[in-house]
């Protein structure tokens, strides 16, 4: 990547030019977003021609603030989080020039939603054990298997997909990574209902789905390395954003506390304040983490933020249900829904409590994250591995 | 209004840390420390002279015109972090934090205040603030010492930190004109300093009795000065707790990597790894909370009260947890006198009580952030 010469002033000038040529008041939303992408103001740290300007990543805030102040539409990043946070960095790093050109623009504008086909019924924490087979057939690959925990599968146009291409080598070595067309024949999406009553996730059944070799990301057999890029970006995406004091779950409980003097007891207050202080300490830790990144000194602290987020979300939402007392016995609605957006702090306390249970599972269980901290940050030895040098096909399952 | 808090360590702060750590690595070695805590000289006077006088840390946050280094609470916090990491037996908290901050809150234009600050900042004189170490910021002005019309003091203050190392005490007392701060030489007639047997072997406490002791009344608002000293002490103590916890984590990690049982390092067992990862995670947040409190104190931010209450309610239990896990994960050796882990456990547990327990700080926090009882 070439050295950037774009600074904050340069970006502001480009924003002014964009606004001058495409007045948000009179330009359609999609048209504006496409123009913003083409001006290199979508994600400024991306290369020129792919929505960026090779500018430092921390300058994105300058662009976002200027455009928000001008009343410009955004790309509704929460709706397309998997595309932005996981698919895009992987395509950028491993995709062909043609793939980058084809996929990144509609991904960023939200014209095309992305989902992730990684986990399987038999491959959760041990993702590298996955069994979905891809077999080469001419210029195509033929894919058969079952994926699970796929959010947005029912709205997605594309998926990032990891498959088994060589069962005769140890599990980490025989995988290959693809972009999968969710409208292709043989792709079947079924809602997966969860403890909240909702089905925000899906099961995805793949039966002889043909994927052109041109949609492969990375080399054959190197799918694990490619997936690592995706997963590192996922963990940055979860719990990595700036939030104000009392942002998120703690604000919900605090509001309930303020609205209901009749529910207060000294014991509940101490527990609430314990969690309030902990939430504030981790909020400050997030601020500190971003300050480290901004001066080019990323620390290992990021590995723990998702772990803390899960713990706090669960403890705070559990406390709120208990605090509500009689009202906590009720639930708003068990009807099966398929929400397009997931809001951890949405709906009522009972929903938040149940949804938070997923926070310590999705995107790496808290147990796996503790292993990662212990082994990669603190340098503790790994557990003895029994599966490392065994061909995938010979693993017990 | 305050600017955005800086939660990082500056280059200057990192340099300061390096020089303090070098000194403490050389002169505060665990076996010597263990021998010292049972000797007749529990404080390391030579180390304190080097730290306080030669490195200038005794008056780090005292303005230059008053003989100090003109640094801020941020740098003082960093020194406390390193002192916590080595549980160094020096009267830094009593003298360089509590006594100097109380004096800075008095009328520094008055010569007796300025003169004493100069002596404390230079390290030639050691001070202590005559309040129980468990005193809570914002509590009622202490009433156990009274001042007579002739300026003499009468009364008792128990569990005063670092009093036995002090040449001079800064004493909150109530006289005919109301609350005031007084200074008393510890060698003066009518002053007895009885060292107690402390839970924390590396920070001594003493019961101080004044029997018509000659004292000097200091000009200025005693209530504000005392509150500021206790608030500063509580906020900066979080950095000491961070240092204690960091040592405990580092020591535990090193131990479980090298300790073999069942044919493998015990640190390869997930049951232990997960506990250590939890301690590490707590340290990540404790560091941010401690830095924020130091930064708020340095900037005299409107948010200082919240910053200190969060730091104390969060960091105090983190240090205790880290020390308890350190003892447990060391197995039998962690329970022995010869291994230094107990010095850290004792410091962590005493620090939990010092300058307000976590529960007291949570109660204060509730008042500040509109979470009423």
UniProtKB/TrEMBL annotation, chain A:
<keyword id="KW-0560">Oxidoreductase</keyword>
<protein>
    <submittedName>
        <fullName>Acyl-CoA dehydrogenase</fullName>
    </submittedName>
</protein>
<feature type="domain" description="Acyl-CoA dehydrogenase/oxidase C-terminal">
    <location>
        <begin position="221"/>
        <end position="378"/>
    </location>
</feature>
<keyword id="KW-0285">Flavoprotein</keyword>
<dbReference type="InterPro" id="IPR006091">
    <property type="entry name" value="Acyl-CoA_Oxase/DH_mid-dom"/>
</dbReference>
<dbReference type="InterPro" id="IPR036250">
    <property type="entry name" value="AcylCo_DH-like_C"/>
</dbReference>
<dbReference type="InterPro" id="IPR052161">
    <property type="entry name" value="Mycobact_Acyl-CoA_DH"/>
</dbReference>
<dbReference type="Pfam" id="PF00441">
    <property type="entry name" value="Acyl-CoA_dh_1"/>
</dbReference>
<keyword id="KW-0274">FAD</keyword>
<dbReference type="InterPro" id="IPR046373">
    <property type="entry name" value="Acyl-CoA_Oxase/DH_mid-dom_sf"/>
</dbReference>
<feature type="domain" description="Acyl-CoA oxidase/dehydrogenase middle">
    <location>
        <begin position="115"/>
        <end position="209"/>
    </location>
</feature>
<dbReference type="InterPro" id="IPR013786">
    <property type="entry name" value="AcylCoA_DH/ox_N"/>
</dbReference>
<dbReference type="InterPro" id="IPR009100">
    <property type="entry name" value="AcylCoA_DH/oxidase_NM_dom_sf"/>
</dbReference>
<dbReference type="Pfam" id="PF02771">
    <property type="entry name" value="Acyl-CoA_dh_N"/>
</dbReference>
<dbReference type="GO" id="GO:0050660">
    <property type="term" value="F:flavin adenine dinucleotide binding"/>
</dbReference>
<dbReference type="InterPro" id="IPR037069">
    <property type="entry name" value="AcylCoA_DH/ox_N_sf"/>
</dbReference>
<comment type="similarity">
    <text>Belongs to the acyl-CoA dehydrogenase family.</text>
</comment>
<feature type="domain" description="Acyl-CoA dehydrogenase/oxidase N-terminal">
    <location>
        <begin position="13"/>
        <end position="111"/>
    </location>
</feature>
<dbReference type="GO" id="GO:0016627">
    <property type="term" value="F:oxidoreductase activity, acting on the CH-CH group of donors"/>
</dbReference>
<dbReference type="InterPro" id="IPR009075">
    <property type="entry name" value="AcylCo_DH/oxidase_C"/>
</dbReference>
<dbReference type="GO" id="GO:0005886">
    <property type="term" value="C:plasma membrane"/>
</dbReference>
<dbReference type="Pfam" id="PF02770">
    <property type="entry name" value="Acyl-CoA_dh_M"/>
</dbReference>
From TrEMBL, chain B:
<dbReference type="Pfam" id="PF02771">
    <property type="entry name" value="Acyl-CoA_dh_N"/>
</dbReference>
<keyword id="KW-0560">Oxidoreductase</keyword>
<comment type="similarity">
    <text>Belongs to the acyl-CoA dehydrogenase family.</text>
</comment>
<keyword id="KW-0285">Flavoprotein</keyword>
<dbReference type="InterPro" id="IPR013786">
    <property type="entry name" value="AcylCoA_DH/ox_N"/>
</dbReference>
<protein>
    <submittedName>
        <fullName>Acyl-CoA dehydrogenase</fullName>
    </submittedName>
</protein>
<dbReference type="InterPro" id="IPR009100">
    <property type="entry name" value="AcylCoA_DH/oxidase_NM_dom_sf"/>
</dbReference>
<dbReference type="GO" id="GO:0003995">
    <property type="term" value="F:acyl-CoA dehydrogenase activity"/>
</dbReference>
<feature type="domain" description="Acyl-CoA dehydrogenase/oxidase C-terminal">
    <location>
        <begin position="230"/>
        <end position="365"/>
    </location>
</feature>
<dbReference type="Pfam" id="PF00441">
    <property type="entry name" value="Acyl-CoA_dh_1"/>
</dbReference>
<keyword id="KW-0274">FAD</keyword>
<feature type="domain" description="Acyl-CoA dehydrogenase/oxidase N-terminal">
    <location>
        <begin position="13"/>
        <end position="124"/>
    </location>
</feature>
<dbReference type="InterPro" id="IPR009075">
    <property type="entry name" value="AcylCo_DH/oxidase_C"/>
</dbReference>
<dbReference type="GO" id="GO:0050660">
    <property type="term" value="F:flavin adenine dinucleotide binding"/>
</dbReference>
<dbReference type="InterPro" id="IPR037069">
    <property type="entry name" value="AcylCoA_DH/ox_N_sf"/>
</dbReference>
<dbReference type="InterPro" id="IPR036250">
    <property type="entry name" value="AcylCo_DH-like_C"/>
</dbReference>
<dbReference type="InterPro" id="IPR046373">
    <property type="entry name" value="Acyl-CoA_Oxase/DH_mid-dom_sf"/>
</dbReference>
């Amino acid at each position: 990547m070439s050295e950037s010469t774009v600074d904050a002033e340069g970006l502001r000038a480009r924003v002014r030019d964009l606004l001058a040529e495409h007045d948000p008041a009179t330009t359609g939303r999609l048209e504006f977003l496409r123009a913003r992408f083409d001006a290199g103001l979508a994600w400024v740290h991306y290369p020129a021609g792919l929505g960026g300007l090779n500018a430092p990543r921390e300058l994105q805030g300058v662009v976002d603030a200027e455009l928000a102040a001008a009343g410009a539409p955004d790309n509704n990043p929460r709706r397309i989080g998997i595309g932005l946070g996981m698919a895009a960095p992987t395509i950028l790093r491993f995709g062909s020039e043609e793939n980058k050109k084809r996929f990144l623009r509609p991904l960023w504008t939200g014209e095309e939603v992305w989902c992730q086909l990684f986990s399987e019924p038999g491959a959760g924490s041990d993702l590298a054990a996955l069994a979905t087979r891809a077999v080469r057939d001419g210029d195509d690959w033929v894919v058969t298997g079952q994926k699970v925990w796929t959010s947005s599968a029912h709205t997605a146009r594309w998926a990032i997909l990891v498959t088994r291409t060589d069962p005769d080598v140890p599990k980490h070595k025989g995988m290959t990574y693809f972009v999968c067309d969710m409208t292709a024949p043989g792709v079947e999406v079924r809602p997966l209902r969860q403890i909240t009553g909702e089905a925000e996730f899906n099961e995805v059944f793949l039966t002889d789905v043909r994927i052109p070799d041109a949609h492969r990301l990375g080399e054959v057999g190197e799918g694990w390395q490619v997936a690592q890029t995706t997963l590192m970006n996922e963990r940055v995406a979860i719990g990595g954003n700036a939030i104000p004091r009392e942002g998120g779950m703690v604000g919900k409980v605090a509001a309930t506390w303020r609205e209901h003097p009749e529910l207060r007891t000294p014991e509940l207050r101490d527990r609430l304040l314990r969690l309030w202080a902990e939430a504030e300490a981790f909020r400050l830790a997030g601020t500190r983490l971003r300050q480290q990144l901004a001066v080019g000194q990323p620390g290992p602290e990021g590995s723990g933020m998702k772990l803390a987020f899960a713990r706090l979300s669960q403890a705070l939402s559990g406390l709120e249900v208990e605090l509500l007392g009689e009202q906590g016995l009720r639930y708003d609605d068990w009807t099966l829904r398929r929400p397009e957006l997931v809001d951890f702090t949405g709906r009522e306390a009972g929903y938040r409590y149940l949804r938070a249970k997923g926070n310590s599972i999705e995107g790496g269980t808290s147990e796996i994250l503790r292993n990662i901290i212990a082994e990669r940050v603190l340098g503790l030895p790994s557990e003895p591995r029994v599966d490392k040098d065994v061909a995938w096909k010979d693993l017990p399952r | 209004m305050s600017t955005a808090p800086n939660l990082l360590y500056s280059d200057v702060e990192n340099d300061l840390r390096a020089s303090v750590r070098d000194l403490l690595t050389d002169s505060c070695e665990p076996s010597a420390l263990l021998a010292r805590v049972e000797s007749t000289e529990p404080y390391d006077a030579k180390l304190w002279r080097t730290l306080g006088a030669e490195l200038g840390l005794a008056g780090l946050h005292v303005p230059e015109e008053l003989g100090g280094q003109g640094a801020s609470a941020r740098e003082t916090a960093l020194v406390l972090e390193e002192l916590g990491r080595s549980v160094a037996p020096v009267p830094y908290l009593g003298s360089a934090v509590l006594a100097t901050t109380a004096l800075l809150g008095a009328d520094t234009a008055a010569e007796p205040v300025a003169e004493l600050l100069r002596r404390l900042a230079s390290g030639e004189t050691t001070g202590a603030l005559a309040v129980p170490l468990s005193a809570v910021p914002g509590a009622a002005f202490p009433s156990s010492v009274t001042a007579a019309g002739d300026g003499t003091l009468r009364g008792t203050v128990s569990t005063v930190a670092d009093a036995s190392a002090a040449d001079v005490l800064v004493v909150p007392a109530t006289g005919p004109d109301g609350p005031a701060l007084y200074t008393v030489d510890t060698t003066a007639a009518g002053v007895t300093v009885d060292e107690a047997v402390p839970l924390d072997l590396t920070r001594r406490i003493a019961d101080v009795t004044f029997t018509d002791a000659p004292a000097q009344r200091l000009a200025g608002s005693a209530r504000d000065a005392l509150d500021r000293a206790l608030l500063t002490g509580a906020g900066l103590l979080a950095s000491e707790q961070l240092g204690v916890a960091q040592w405990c984590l580092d020591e535990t990690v090193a131990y479980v990597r090298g300790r073999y049982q069942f044919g493998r390092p015990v640190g390869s067992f997930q049951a232990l790894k997960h506990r250590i990862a939890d301690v590490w995670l707590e340290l990540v947040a404790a560091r941010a909370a401690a830095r924020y409190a130091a930064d708020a104190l340095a900037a005299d931010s409107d948010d200082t009260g919240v910053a200190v209450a969060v730091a104390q309610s969060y960091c105090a239990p983190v240090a205790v947890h880290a020390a308890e896990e350190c003892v447990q994960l060391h197995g039998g050796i962690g329970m022995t006198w010869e291994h230094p882990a107990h010095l850290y456990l004792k410091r962590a547990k005493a620090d939990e009580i010092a300058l307000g327990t976590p529960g007291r700080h949570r109660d204060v926090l509730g008042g500040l952030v509109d979470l009423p009882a």
